[in-house]
Sequence to fold (299 residues):
Amino acid sequence: MTDHQSPSLTFTDFGAADAAAFLAPPQPGDDKYSRGVLGVMTGSSSFPGAALLGVEGATRTGVGMVRYLGPGRATRMVLQRRPEVVTADGRVQAWLIGSGMAAEGRDPSVTAALIEVLSHGHPVVVDAGALDLLEHATGPVVITPHAGELLTLLSSHGISTSRADITADAEHWAALTAQLLGVTVLLKGHLTHVVGAAQAGNSADRALGPAVRVTAPTTELATAGSGDVLAGILGALVATHHEELDADDDGNGGVLARLAATAATLHGLAGERASGGGPIVALDIAHALPATIAALRAR
Ligand SMILES: NC(=O)C1=CN([C@@H]2O[C@H](COP(=O)(O)OP(=O)(O)OC[C@H]3O[C@@H](n4cnc5c(N)ncnc54)[C@H](OP(=O)(O)O)[C@@H]3O)[C@@H](O)[C@H]2O)[C@@H](O)CC1
Ligand SMILES: Nc1ncnc2c1ncn2[C@@H]1O[C@H](COP(=O)(O)OP(=O)(O)O)[C@@H](O)[C@H]1O
Fold:
């Protein structure tokens, strides 16, 4: 446990019925732009695969278009597998950044590009190697750390804890982080905890939003790249719900938190479907998404 006070929140379970509310098909009047375009800035020479995993997660969740902007090798991998992806810069409704990057040793030009994305005011899903740049965000942010990444983020704010403590008391640390930073937090694990937060205000008086818990239906999700797929799923959901996010005037990150919990639910159910009781690789989760979404829509 810890000396740091966290707001007292009651976490409720979020499940398939809750997620289904965010998985409607496109409307007859929609086109690719009205559905929403997701900008993706992920991957590096060390982790090019994470770029592909996030893009697969996003495209299989359903999104108008993905614009991928990343290093040459990752771009080639993405295009080889997903020719639908556009690699030219342009307008987007939301961003996914940081998967497959490491803050330490990041190229200064990449850091500058990430900061520019964060400063545009669009909703941003911030994963892994961009979590050190949150102070540059001007729009709604949802972060997707695992316990180790949350530990690094908290220690950069002078908060000392341990990975074991975070895992043992995930509700506390997710809530504390949301309150401290004014971002919606999705803390990954067998139980994934999500807390919405207002951007406005300071940590003493910040409004916190829904606090929900998603229980993974299979432990096979614990495999390399699984979190990169989750980040892609969430990116697509944020891009396709940009209008609801704009209209979310509760000011407590409520829509963003529910989208995050929907992503975790979908990720878990797709992993379970792909597994059928056996082992999976991360791409299997992405490939099981369309059938999983169809089943949720049919409920
Ligand atoms: N295909 C891809 O492109 C993929 C890309 N990925 C991308 O990689 C990036 C880094 O993400 P990550 O979560 O792996 O690293 P990170 O948070 O720095 O934690 C490191 C911690 O792990 C530990 N550790 C390491 N080895 C260990 C061992 N054998 N047994 C036990 N512990 C071990 C290590 O401990 P240490 O060795 O220091 O004692 C340290 O504490 C990120 O950008 C992600 O998106 C991934 O998604 C995977 C697929
Ligand atoms: N024991 C577990 N049971 C179920 N799901 C898990 C378990 N461990 C991790 N996960 C899920 O697997 C994913 C792992 O993400 P992450 O740690 O970022 O891995 P990577 O960086 O390799 O993608 C997360 O969605 C997390 O919730």
About this structure: The chain has one domain: 12-297. The pocket of adenosine-5'-diphosphate (ligand 2) is lined by residues 146, 188-190, 192, 216, 219, 221-222, 224-228, 230, 267 (CB under 6 Å). The first helix runs from residue 16 to 20.
